[in-house]
Specification:
Order of helices and strands: HHHHHHHH
Helix content: over 70%
Number of helices: 8
Structural class: mainly alpha
Low-confidence stretches: none
Oligomer: single chain
Radius of gyration: 22 Å
Distance between the termini: 58 Å
Mean pLDDT: 79
Length: about 230
Amino acid sequence: MRVITYSDTVLVPLSLFLTVGYHAYLWHSVRRKPSVTTIGHDAQKRKAWFLALKEGDDKAGMLAVQSMRNTLMVTILTATIAVLINLALAALTNNAYGADHLFGSALFGSKSSKIFALKYGSASFFSSFSFLCSSMAVGYLIDANFLINAADGDGTFSSSPYTQTVFERGFLLALLGNRLLCVTLPLLTWMFGPVPVALSSVALVWVLYELDFAPRSLRCTNKNRA
């Protein structure tokens, strides 16, 4: 029983370490072997598409706006979900003390005030940063839309290094906002105990691994092109 009571100090840090370790491995893979990951593969295709805009016709600007519209919509949705989670956590914090008797079992972990603050504070922290990154991503993507459609002196669309930097920062911040929201989801299950946090973290890493790393067919195609 004592082990179950103090499992918050073991399972939750291990779950966070698993999630952070996976993203560190993903970042290393993107830096070293971008073709192995879907993120690196998409970045390469996006860069080639961006550089080809200067060779387009009058419809190139409209095509750029339509291509970035889906990313803008997903980013706005991520920011909306993050701020709604933050507001819901604020409401739950005000009422959780009154419902503490419903979670009296030792399976729900420690009931100390410090652990209670960490349960809601950690999820609120990550959701707040997810909202911040997503909001900044929306701003960068809107600026990139404007800069791409701003014609240069020779009549071609702008593909300067500054425009490309704004363009890539928008996608990077959108990715960070999405991943911070994903990290928030296992922390939301902490109110039901540390065991759901560990299980949901393992499930999250497994799902992200299937999404982040390219299938074998795509890897073979990239090797043949190289």
